[in-house]
Amino acid sequence: MQRNRLGQSPLVVTNLCLGTMTFGLQANEATSFAIMDRAVEQGIDFFDTAELYPVPPDASLFGITESIIGRWLQSRRCRDQIILASKVTGPGHGWFRPPVRHGFTTLDRHQIIKACEDSLRRL
After folding, report:
1. How confident is the model over 17-70, as pLDDT tens digits?
2. Which of 53, 62, 70, 115 is catalytic?
3. Active site (annotated) includes residue 53
4. DSSP string spanning the chain?
5. What is the pTM of this model?
6. Structural domain boundaries of the chain?
7. Which of 9, 83, 89, 90 has the fewest CB atoms nearer than 10 Å to its CB?
8. CA 85 – CA 8 distance, rounded (Å)
């Protein structure tokens, strides 16, 4: 598997990144674990997630994707081998109010730090 430096950071990641936006909705926990196991078997060490996942957003499932990844990392004891990329949810566009941080989705310093802390707890 080819690897590249991630932007200006010192991190070196695989060319392929495992997207996890379906974990917890279209893919249950067992299937999600199997997908992550297979990705690692194939040499992929770069996973993408977000506080809003799974997609489509559902307030009752908010954060479950990160929680599934966290349980997988704990059960496989491989946290030091995986590079995680996550995203903070911004404000909706009128028709959509993200079910995150009790509706506080302003992208200010406080909310970004809160989103990161919450993601780290789930992961």
Report:
1. 999 999 999 999 999 999 999 999 999 999 999 988 888 877 788 889 999 999
2. 53
3. yes
4. --EEE-TTSS-EEESS-EE-TTBTTTB-HHHHHHHHHHHHHTT--EEE--TT-SSS--GGGTTHHHHHHHHHHHHHT-GGG-EEE--------SS----SGGG----SHHHHHHHHHHHHHH-
5. 0.86
6. 3-122
7. 9
8. 15
